[in-house]
Design goal:
- This protein is mostly helical and 96 residues long.
- Helices cover 56% and strands 0% of the residues.
- The protein starts with 9 loop residues before the first helix and ends in a 12-residue tail after the last helix.
């Protein structure tokens, strides 16, 4: 069998574990993302499909992807209406 040399390396296994962890946690958090990025970068470095160095373009692609993730991720909505509601003030003497 003609299996590529990079299939069973540590970085490909790290990439697979990162994607599996992300799937199990519905891609929430950042632990899976760190494993996936590190594994993906080293896997791209090991793949020699094209005539040029794929690692040279993979770092900018990862940075662009992280930027898009930060920009497009769902934000937690903070409701400030409760801070501006007028509540009645109680001036009764609590000691009497």
């Amino acid at each position: 069998m003609d299996v590529p040399h990079w299939i069973l390396k540590w970085h490909t296994i790290m990439l697979g574990i990162g994607l599996w962890m992300g799937y199990r946690k519905d891609f929430q958090g950042s632990g899976w993302l760190a494993l996936t990025i590190i594994g993906g970068l080293f896997t791209f470095k090991a793949i020699n499909i094209f005539d040029f160095d794929l690692f040279r373009i993979s770092v900018p692609m990862v940075l662009i992807g992280l930027g898009l993730y930060v920009i497009l991720k769902p934000r937690k909505v903070q409701n400030f209406d409760q801070y501006f509601e007028k509540k009645p003030v109680d001036f009764t003497d609590k000691e009497s």
